[in-house]
Amino acid sequence: MTPEMERAFAVIRSEHGAESLSRVERMLEPGGGGPRHPLQKGAKWILPGLSPTPWHEPYAYPELTPVVEALEYAHPAIKDELNSAWAAHREGFSAYEHYLTRQEDWQALYVYRDGALVAESAATVPTAHKVLQEFAVDTGTICPLLESHFSTLLPGASIAPHCDLWNFSINLHLAVDIPDGCGITVADETRCWREGRCLLFDYSFEHEARNDGDRPRTCLLVDLWHPETTRAERRALVVLVSEVRRLMADV
């Protein structure tokens, strides 16, 4: 670890206890903190002690229930605003750039990015912006290391099997506009989105998606802290990932 990380970790331990970062420290040891599920092999970091569960019940966690309820309740307005943005403000969408690839047939309209809400989204998709502000950003459940965006797969598009970088955040999908012929597979289990409802899964497990329908498929994706992480761990993980990104940018 860098001196900056060491100092930050020391402050966190002083406030939360000497053992508060033990799982983060084990994660950084050679071997990545212990054994992992075979379908998590592609992830960079696996925080030990988190339930190795690919699919999660969206209403299973009191911390996450408010944002799930709010998004599902607001779905009609969110869908109307998304369709208006797609028709009148297509320039706000861009080819999605995953850390592994960039896809023209996978379009994104960002609501939260680089640790803050995207100001322009308050005008184009105000309901999603407001719900995320109140129920994810203000409550600290959103993972500031990642993002929230409307994810639009064009007809015939697919997302190849891959693992994301870590397991200490999980991905919430609000199914906004779903044609027939769409599906998502996580750890070899395929499910279909139900319009107006949420799915929640651990994207450190291998996953893929497809749109075999006749119109675009759109979900609102929100990266949330894994509910089994602690406040101390979240602070440390922000320090860790931010420092790694800074060092990579300097290379």
Describe this structure in words.
The chain is an alpha+beta fold. It has two domains: 3-20 and 230-250, no CATH class; 55-225, Sandwich (Jelly Rolls). It has seven helices and twelve strands. The longest helix has 20 residues, at 231-250.
Beta-sheet strand percentage? 25-35%
Tell me the total number of β-strands.
12
Q: Can you identify the CATH superfamily of the largest domain? A: B-lactam Antibiotic, Isopenicillin N Synthase, Chain
Radius of gyration from the CA trace? 18 Å
What is the level 1 CATH name of the largest domain? Answer: Mainly Beta
Question: What number of structural domains do the residues give?
Answer: 2
Low-confidence stretches: none
Could you say which overall geometry the principal axes of the C-alpha atoms support? globular
Query: Helical content, roughly?
Result: 25-40%
CATH-defined fold name of the largest domain: Jelly Rolls
Structural class: alpha+beta
The CATH architecture of the largest domain would be Sandwich
Main pleated-sheet profile: 8 strands, antiparallel
Number of helices: 7
- Mean pLDDT, all residues: 94
User: What is the helix/strand order?
Assistant: HHEHHEEEHHEEEEEEEEH
- What is the end-to-end distance? 17 Å
Brief digest:
The chain is α+β, with helices and mostly antiparallel strands and 251 residues long.
Keyword list:
12 strands, alpha+beta, 2 domains, eight-stranded antiparallel sheet, 251 residues, four-stranded antiparallel sheet, 7 helices
